[in-house]
Amino acid sequence: IKLLAKLSGGLCTDILDTTIYRYPVCRVYDTVWPSICDDSSYLHHDSLLIQPGIYRIDSDLFTYVAVLEVRPTGVMDTTMSVCDSLWWDYGMNYTSQYLEHHIRTTQNCDSTRILRLTVLYSSDTVFPDTVVQNQLPRRVGNAVFGDVVGDTLLHVANHVGCDSSIYYSLHVWNNVFTAYDTTVCNHVLPMQWGAGYFTHACTQSITLRGAGQHGVDSTVTLTMYVNPDHYLFFNDSTSDTTLPIFFNGRRYTTAVHNDTFYYINQYGCDSVLHFTLSIDYHVVSCDKALMFPNVVTPNGDGINDRFVILGLIENDCYEHSDLTIYNRWGGIVFSQKDTYLPSQFWDPAAQQAPAGTYIYHFSAHGPHGTVTRNGVIEVVY
Q: Mean pLDDT, to the nearest integer, of 205-229?
């Protein structure tokens, strides 16, 4: 600041320089640090505060500052399980399944604890048990059993993990080992037995798990024998002069092809015979002279006791002959070559041949040519 003084009408002047300091007005600050829970608010000079932060209000020479802290409240949710023989310590002891507990946290804010408690139950039971011999030793909990035991008290954890008591009793079944044999006919093969197949006669063993008595593991050995089926084809020829002829109980007056006979052979198996008959209308006279009986009655009366081919010996047609007689199962019961006497023919009674149907095959040759005959003989006592 300059001060100018004019004296004597301005003829004399004087100047004074000086510095004046202007000090600012002093502002007063008022600061507070309030702390609230998040479910409440704070009033700061007519302002309602709920969020944490720094708030400033200026008024004249005063500044009001609030540094607000918001402390949390909340819900603490706990899910647990406990056996019924225990207590759950949650500020206090509980056995209920759902609890709410109002508490104040370390920051002094109201909160809620929720306990969702599942109570699991222990059990006391009597448990009879069985086991197969080859499954020993048997482990139950921490106990090991190697033989039959009576009632034994076991402390074990049940299926929910709670301590329980079991009165345990064990019975041991012995394993079974069995052998069988059987006989079947060939036409039933292949045959399934258990998990295996039979395609021929043999011995097989299988293990039957749970299929034996009391569910005991067992080993069963089966020996299978196979009897044959017979499929025979029999061809016969005759002349028109010998008709009708009989074969296996059937009467034929004309030629036939593959006439089918079903029968049971000596092994009890189904068998099939196919019969074919041809008629020769152009045979030589010697061939026409041959007569083959259809029925033999070996009852000892001297009449038709033997199977005698008429015309073979009497007419001396054929020097060499071959006669073979079969039973109905294909077995040879008589065979004779170069027959010259009636006593050389087949006598069923001498062989104790049973009554029934037999089949013959005859062939011969000589100066008059050759001949072949097949036919059926019925033996009747």
A: 67
327-344 tens-digit pLDDT: 999 999 999 999 888 899
Closest by CA position to 215, among listed 130, 129, 128: 130
The pLDDT score that the predictor gives to residue 283 is: 47
Quickly count helices (H) and strands (E) in the chain: 1, 33
Listing DSSP states for 265-287 in one string gives -TTS-EEEEEEEEEEESS--HHH
CA distance 296 to 376: 11
Contacts 24+ apart (CB under 8 A), 109-114: 109/37, 109/38, 109/39, 109/71, 109/72, 109/73, 110/37, 110/39, 110/73, 111/73, 111/74, 111/75, 111/76, 112/74, 112/75, 112/76, 113/75, 113/76, 113/78, 114/75, 114/76, 114/77, 114/78
Chain centroid, CA 168 distance in Å: 32
Q: Distance (Å, rounded) from C-alpha 234 to C-alpha 275? A: 5
Give tens-digit pLDDT for 86-123.
665 555 455 555 666 666 666 677 777 777 777 777 77
